[in-house]
Amino acid sequence: MRERIGLIAGNGRFPLLVLDAARASGLDVVVAAIREETSPEIEAHGAASVHWMSLGELSRLIDTFKREQVARAVSGYFPESEIVDVAFHDWNADPWSNGTWLTVPAAAPDLFDADRFELPGRILLAGSDVAAQETGWFEGALRSGAAAVTRATEKLRDAD
Predict the structure, then answer these.
(1) pTM of model > 0.85
(2) CA torsion sign, 68 to 20 to 26 to 76?
(3) Cβ atoms of residues 9 and 42 within 8 Å
């Protein structure tokens, strides 16, 4: 079996040139063609397979390359690596997330100020959406959780 690589094909002639060069070098090429961008001409350039997908279908792209046993792109950066498994969660398709994660609008940076989420009494909020730093990111959730534990400890100590 010949070595196989993956090509994410966007618009213009460049994906066709890369595909032709890779084939001329003896490589099989699995093409992930972006439906909104890639020329249908890609089908006629001798790829091992062409998979049409939309920009938002990252999980399908990963599954396609995994299924086609593409590992060269990863090994180029991490030669000692071996792809054992791939996991991905599509937040846009998640019925409980209502789309994607929180993004703070540039025009309203104070909109999600952590002080706005301070509640009276014994109720504490924690999570990336109410984090004082790195709002909307996993690191923000960790910092927010640690801050909530500190505040809970202080409230319990003050109650004694």
Answers:
(1) no
(2) negative
(3) yes
List, for residues 86-103, the tens digit of each pLDDT value: 555 666 677 777 666 666
CA 65, CA 69: separation in Å to the nearest integer? Answer: 6
Beta bridge partners of 91: none
Residues 128 and 113: their CA atoms lie apart, in Å, by: 12
* CATH number at 4-77: 3.40.50.20
Angle at 80 between CA 29 and CA 65, to 5 degrees: 30
Domain chopping of the chain, boundaries: 4-77, 114-159
Query: Are 66 and 79 a contacting pair, CB within 8 Å?
Result: no
Instruction: Give the span between the Cα atoms of 132 and 143, in whole angstroms.
Output: 8
For residues 40 and 135, give the distance between their C-alpha atoms in angstroms, rounded to a whole number: 41
